[in-house]
C-alpha cells in the first residue's frame, strides 16, 4: 500500500471489486511518512532560512536564529505522529478490507499474511516499494545510524552529521540540516553528487554546498565506521567524526521474502519486470519503485492508473517513460526530464546539446540565482532536459510537455517565452544547440 497501491486498492474497491489490501507498515508507504512529504517540509523550512540570510545585499539586515522545533512539530502533525488511521479508513470506507501484516506470495493468486490465506479470483497487485539499502561497511551494523526513516523523526538538528551517499536523499537532507546549523559532511563514492543526472547538475550542487559550508568528499571508499557515542567514518587514510550518521546509499526490495519465486519470477533480481500494462505474470501486476522505472511517487501513481485500467478492462495508453520527470529539491533546484546526454549517447542517438547559464538570463541576473538550462536533442526531437535554478522543477515542466507531446525543436525555437521569467532561458539554450 505505497502511494500507487493505495490508489489501485481504492479505485478497484470503488469500482465494486472485492479488494483486500495487505500492509506491513503504514498505509500510503514511504512518501507521506518518511519520504517526499516530510523531507520537503524540512526543505521548505531550510529554504526560508536561506532566503532570510539573503536579505543583506538585497533588502536590509536580518538576524536568523534557526529552530528545529517548528519543523519537528509540523512533521508530527503532517504524519499524524506516524499514524495511518486516516488513510486506512479512507480505504475501508470504500469497501476494502485492510489486512495488517507482511504478505507473502504462496501460490498463483494467493497471498498469505501470518495464518490468513487470501485467494483472489482476478489477481494480485504488487506494490512493496523499497527500503533503505545498507552497504556492508565494516563496523556499521549495530551502530545507531540513521536512514531517512529516523532523520525525519529528529527532534532537533544534530550538531554534526555525516551522510553516506550523495544521491537524491543525501543532497536534499544534507542541505536541509546544514541550513539549520548542523555541520554536515557528505561522503559520495562516485566522482560527483547526483551521479545519475547531468554532470553540470552535480557540479553546481557541489559548488553551492561548498559555499554554504557543507564538506563534500566525492570518489571516496569508506573502509570503516566506528561508534563510541559519536560516529567516526574512515575513508582511505582520512576520517570524519560526527554526532549522527545518515546512510542514504540507495534502496532495495527483498523479492525472496515477498515470495515472487512462487509465480515464476526471479527472487534474486533487484526489480520486478513489467510490460507496458504493468503485468508481471499471469494475474500479477506490479507498480512503484519495485518495477525499476524510477523510484518516484509520480511513477507509482502513473503506473497505478495504468494497472487499474488494465484490471478493469478499460482502454488507455500504455506506459511511456520518455518524458519521465524528476526534481531534486535542493537550492538551486534541479529539474530533469527524459534522457541525460550520456544516456542518449548510450542509446546510439545522434546527440546535440544546448546550454545556457541562468545568470545570463534577465531573471537569473535580477534574482542573483544560480542555475542553467541544458537541452539534449536528437534530430528535431528534444529527448532530455535539465533545468537548474530557483524554480528548476517548475521550469522543467515546460520541457516535459515538449517531450511528452513530441513538439519539434524547430517549433520550440519559434515560441514566445514570457519576459523576464526563468523559463525564458530555454530560448537561449535552444539557440545554443550545435
Ligand atoms: C527521503 C525520501 C524522499 C523522497 N522524496 C521524493 C520526492 O520528493 N518525490 C518523489 O516523487 N519521490 C520521492 N521519494 C520516493 C518515494 O517515496 C517513492 O518512490 C514512493 O513512496 C513510491 O513507492 P512505492 O509505491 O513503490 O511504495 P512505498 O512507498 O515504498 O510503499 C510500499 C509499502 O509496502 C509495504 N510492504 C512492502 N512489502 C510488503 C509485504 N510483503 N507485505 C505487506 N506490506 C508490504 C511497506 O510497508 C510500504 O508501506 C522519496 C523517498 C525518500 C526515501
Ligand atoms: N526529490 C525526489 O524525487 C527524491 C528525493 C529523495 C529520494 N528519491 C528517490 O529515492 C531513491 C533513493 O535515494 P538515495 O539517495 O538513497 O539513492 P540514490 O541511488 O539516488 O543515491 C545513492 C548514492 O549513494 C552512493 N553510494 C552508494 N554506496 C555508497 C558507499 N558505500 N559509499 C559512498 N557512497 C555510496 C551512490 O553512488 C549514490 O550516489 C532515489 O533514487 C530517488 O528515486 C527521490
UniProtKB/TrEMBL annotation:
Domain Pyridine nucleotide-disulphide oxidoreductase dimerisation: 325-429
Pfam families linked to this entry: Pyr_redox_2, Pyr_redox_dim
Domain FAD/NAD(P)-binding: 2-303
Ligase is among the record's keywords: no
Domain of life: Bacteria
Cofactors: FAD
Keywords: FAD, Flavoprotein
Family of this protein: Belongs to the class-I pyridine nucleotide-disulfide oxidoreductase family.
Protein's name according to its UniProt entry: NAD(P)/FAD-dependent oxidoreductase
